[in-house]
Structures are given as structure tokens and as C-alpha cells.
């Protein structure tokens, strides 16, 4: 709940700043609202997968370049198959191939963490480098343009004034919210994050769950890469590089504990919008964009301190 309250306070703060500085409005401007929502799309899709991982007590540092890898694969595949299959079918095939390829590093991450007991930080950091190198090799070190007008329409078109990519993201978030809050998979995820030994003794197959968990996280990154490619009508290996910090920040700001065992998709949604409002709002009030990194970093630190304080007062585990 604190994430939504902070989002409201942040929006009101920028509203007051905009009225005093420019005599205009920040919140009651439909262009600003849509721009903020579009800013939040890719980080939010990444953050949904990261939410599952952090709730389980892990972290996935490879998501940014898995997203870039998927973006490049989507671009090459759509360009290759569209002339023969047609524009809509080319997009469908390209999306399936890109998301499937993204699942490969997720599978490797899952095997490293669940079977070989490699710490998630180290295993996914290694995959960060591998995915980065493969993505740049496939892209030839450049951005890969996409020749498919149907794909460009998905990325930049609107229905009743609402961009398609916002609707796609909203539907995806609802599905992930249901998966986490209403299914056995989601409940097992909370149990493992809260106490992995107790979860194992209760009959949960922890190894199998962690394997599927990292695959799911990578598939989310794959979808984020496809959405990015649709928005810019091109695939770029570095597409997700600046979004890794944003997706982790969204999860933490949204109330998930880095110790595991707590967090929600709806909280992550609020966290993603907090990041988007900070990034867009600072540009709107004509502040140097480099302050975005400082602001996001401060918000992350404050969120972690609040989480630690809550755990201390509630008697939760705090690692010394």
C-alpha cells in the first residue's frame, strides 16, 4: 500500500512543481499520462518476472540482456519470415521464436541455481555477460531495423486512444497477478521464499520450482524484448541494459522483500509507475536527466530501509 501512497504523493509533488514553474498541469494532461504508461511498459514486464524471483529469495541479473537478445532475435526472425508468410503471421512467428530463445538462458539459470546450487547473484550475473555477448554478435554490433508495417502498428498504434502495447501489458500483468496470487505455483513461491527448508519438508519440489521460476522470468524478458522492438520498430542488443535497475527498483519499491517471502504483482505495478513518474516528471520540469539515476537509487535505498524496519518490528529475520 505504501507504494501506491508514494506514487500519489510523487504525482502531486510534480503537479505542484509544474503549476509553480510553468503554470501548467502535470497530472491532468492525457499526453503525460499516456507517456508515463508507455515509459512503464518494458520495465513492468521485466519486473513481473523479477517479482517471482525476488519473492522466492533470489534475484535475476540477466534479464536486461535476455530482453536485448529477444529483441534482436525478433527483428531477424520477422524480417526473414514476413515475405513468405505475410505480415501478421511473420509477427506471430517472430514473437514465438524470440520468447522461446529467451527461455534458453532462463533454463540455464534455473539449472545453475536449482541443480548446481550456484548462488542466484553469481549464476545470473554470468548469464548477463553471455546473453549480452550473444545478442551483440547476432546484431552485428548495430541496431536491426524491422520491415513489417503490422508490427510497427502494434508498437505505435492505438484503439480508442489507448496504445496497443499498454493493453497488451495490462493483460499480461493480470495473468501474472492471477498466477502469483491464485495458483499453487504462486503459493509455493511464497513458501520457498519464507523458509526453503520448511517448504521442502512440506513436500514442495524446490528444485523443480526454481527451474520453472527462472524460465518464467526469462520468458517475461523475452516478451519485453518483443514489445520494445514493436515500439521502436527495431531490435537492439542493449535494449534492456538500462532497465535492469528499473525492474529491480520497481519490485523493491512495490513492497517485495529482498529477503524473500513477500511481494505482489500489484505492488510491482505501483513501483514501475513510481519509476516512470520520476523519469518522465524530471524531464517535464526541465531537470537534467542524470538526476533520474540519483532519484531512483535514493528511492531504492529508502524502500530497503523501510522493509528492514518492518521486519525488525515484526520479529522477522534480519541477516547481520
Describe the structure.
The chain crosses the membrane at residues 34-55, 62-81, 87-108, 159-180, 210-230, 242-259, 266-284, 290-307. This protein is mainly alpha-helical. The chain has a single domain, classed as Orthogonal Bundle (ABC transporter involved in vitamin B12 uptake, BtuC), CATH 1.10.3470. It has helices at residues 2-22, 30-55, 63-85, 87-114, 120-139, 149-156, 164-182, 184-194, 196-201, 206-232, 243-253, 265-284, 291-314; strands at 144-145, 158-159, 162-163, 234-235. The strands form 2 sheets. It has a two-stranded antiparallel sheet. Strands 2-3 form a two-stranded antiparallel sheet.
Summarize the structure.
The protein is an all-alpha fold and 320 residues long. It has helices spanning 2-22, 30-55, 63-85, 87-114, 120-139, 149-156, 164-182, 184-194, 196-201, 206-232, 243-253, 265-284, 291-314; strands at residues 144-145, 158-159, 162-163, 234-235.
Amino acid at each position: 500500500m505504501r507504494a501506491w501512497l508514494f506514487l500519489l504523493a510523487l504525482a502531486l509533488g510534480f503537479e505542484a512543481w509544474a503549476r509553480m514553474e510553468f503554470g501548467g498541469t502535470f497530472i491532468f494532461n492525457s499526453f503525460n499520462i499516456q507517456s508515463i504508461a508507455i515509459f512503464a511498459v518494458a520495465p513492468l514486464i521485466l519486473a513481473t518476472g523479477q517479482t517471482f524471483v525476488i519473492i522466492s529469495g533470489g534475484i535475476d541479473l540477466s534479464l536486461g540482456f535476455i530482453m536485448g537478445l529477444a529483441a534482436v532475435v525478433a527483428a531477424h526472425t520477422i524480417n526473414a519470415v514476413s515475405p513468405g508468410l505475410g505480415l501478421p503471421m511473420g509477427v506471430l512467428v517472430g514473437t514465438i521464436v524470440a520468447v522461446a530463445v529467451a527461455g534458453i538462458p532462463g533454463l540455464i539459470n534455473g539449472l545453475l541455481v536449482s541443480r548446481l546450487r550456484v548462488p542466484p547473484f553469481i549464476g545470473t550475473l554470468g548469464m548477463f555477460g553471455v546473453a549480452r555477448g550473444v545478442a551483440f554478435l547476432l546484431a552485428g554490433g548495430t541496431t536491426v531495423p524491422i520491415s513489417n508495417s503490422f508490427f510497427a502498428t502494434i508498437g505505435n498504434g492505438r484503439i480508442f486512444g489507448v496504445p496497443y502495447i499498454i493493453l497488451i501489458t495490462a493483460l499480461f500483468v493480470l495473468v501474472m497477478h492471477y498466477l502469483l496470487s491464485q495458483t499453487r505455483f504462486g503459493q509455493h513461491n511464497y513458501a520457498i521464499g519464507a523458509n526453503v527448508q520448511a517448504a521442502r519438508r512440506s513436500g514442495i519440489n524446490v528444485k523443480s520450482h526454481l527451474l520453472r521460476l527462472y524460465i518464467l522470468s526469462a520468458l517475461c524478458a523475452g516478451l519485453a524484448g518483443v514489445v520494445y522492438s514493436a515500439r521502436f520498430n527495431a531490435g537492439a542488443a542493449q535494449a534492456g541494459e538500462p532497465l535492469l535497475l528499473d525492474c529491480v527498483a520497481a519490485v523493491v519499491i512495490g513492497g517485495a522483500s529482498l529477503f524473500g517471502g513477500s511481494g505482489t504483482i500489484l505492488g510491482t505495478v505501483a513501483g514501475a509507475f513510481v519509476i516512470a513518474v520520476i523519469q518522465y516528471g524530471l524531464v517535464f520540469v526541465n531537470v537534467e536527466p542524470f538526476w533520474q539515476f540519483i532519484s531512483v537509487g535514493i528511492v531504492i535505498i529508502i524502500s530497503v530501509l523501510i522493509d528492514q524496519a518492518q521486519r525488525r518490528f515484526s520479529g522477522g529475520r534480519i541477516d547481520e
